[in-house]
Amino acid sequence: MLLGRGQLDPYPDPDPGATAPNPENDAGGPYYGRLVSLAPGDVVVIPAGTAHMNVEMTDDYRFVGVYPVGSPKWKSERCDNRDIMSQLRDEISQVPMPIADPVQGEGGLLITLWSKVDQ
Fold first, then answer.
1. Is the peptide bond before 102 cis (omega within 30 degrees of 0)?
2. What is the C-alpha to C-alpha distance for residues 25 and 9, in angstroms, rounded to an integer?
3. H helices of 1-119, where?
4. DSSP state, 33?
5. Which pTM value belongs to this model?
6. Which of these, 36, 95, 26, 35, lies nearest to 66 by C-alpha position?
7. How confident is residue 106, by pLDDT bands cut at 50, 70 and 90?
């Protein structure tokens, strides 16, 4: 697995590809989808091609990203240009299945779940 670390920059505007705002959001939205609060030690697994954004963070917030070996380089793509959607879908399909579950290792549940979706 490849490893990346860093700090996220929040996007000030909602994703133009999203379909509906979340009316339950009280964090200064409108943001699209679900608002999830995280705490130190939490693990979030985001499948390839899944839209996500950082709405709010503290100055000491950091993340660790793990990507399967052979994956295309990650990119921050807001999909403002709809003409590239087909190309992005092709790139997403090139992300290989990880050899092991990124959280639980060999025999972990995520590989089993992702394998069923891939069939």
1. no
2. 19
3. 85-93, 109-118
4. S
5. 0.57
6. 95
7. confident
